[in-house]
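User: Teach me something about this protein's shape.
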Amino acid sequence: MKKYKVGIIGGTGMVGQRFITLMEGHPWFQLTVIAASPRSAGKTYEQAVSGRWAMEKPIPEEAKGLVVMDAQADVEKIAGLVDFVFCAVDMKKDEIRALEERYAKAECPVVSNNSAHRWTDDVPMVVPEMNPQHIEIIPAQRRRLGTKRGFIAVKSNCSIQSYAPAITPLLKYGVEKVLVCTYQAISGAGKTFERWPEMVDNLIPYIGGEEEKSEQEPLKIWGRIENDKFVKADGPSITAQCLRVPVSDGHTAAVFIKFSGEKPSIEQIKLDWANFKGRAQELELPSAPKQFIHYFEEPDRPQAKLDRELEGGMAVSMGRLREDTQYDYKFVGLSHNTLRGAAGGAVLLAELLCAEGYIDHM
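Assistant: First, the predicted structure itself:
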């Protein structure tokens, strides 16, 4: 098949670097443009990330010699070179919103890793296994923007991937309340231990804005489209605490869940998780895990170091499902925050948008 030409906006940061590695050998996507801030523009990508390449894999050969463009000054030029862009810039939210709309209005679809547009009324926030139908709002968004090709779609917050997928197939039983504590890796802050030595042997019980996202974003994902806008789901009620822990990659969640009616059995929940598939699996998208939710029977699993890379880091893991004294059940979840949670989730969303005809070739 003819490959889609891809641009990465914000390609020098932690998530941008992850996008770069995921483009290497991708069967559908060809890395064509890398853009970043003015201080990186004009340098080769290898020069721009010299001394701050944070991935275990080396810089892909196809990226090394690309001359970095200016993400803000070269919008029209970039839009003319690619079929769509991934966006992972580090800017203020209002600046990100404006920049992403500039790309969309330049008739360049934007698949964003940023949080800036997650609550825009007509911007779909999609986990392809959970709410693929939400991309159906794109024609309405195009009418608002006055575009034919351009639009913005976003992926959700990385931490909710460690628990919201497990709750989704259980909603049919009437989930009333969820309490979740997330233990989040330092790469979620764009850091490594070399750059953040104070995180070694440490735990920080605060991540700015994370608890609000954790409590609210699942409700948009479980919501519906009405009058060309998203309406949040009425429930379940979610309360969250989010902690930064000394782990390189992988967000873990301790989850407590209560049902409004008769609760399903432990065996039924495990069966629902094992059978949970979505549009990504139906379409056999290149980045989709074959088994979305893996359950571990071992009492000490899932573990970030052992299990975060399952199915290329795109599967999520559950374990320790058992009855609780105050809620009905409790369990532990794990997802790779920069793969399933960030860049990989955005790549999977882009694959869905291409497969469903929302992104075409220029």
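Now, about its shape. The domain at 4-157+343-355 is CATH 3.40.50.720 (Rossmann fold). The mean pLDDT is 97. If you'd like, I can walk through any region in more detail.
User: That's plenty for now, thanks!
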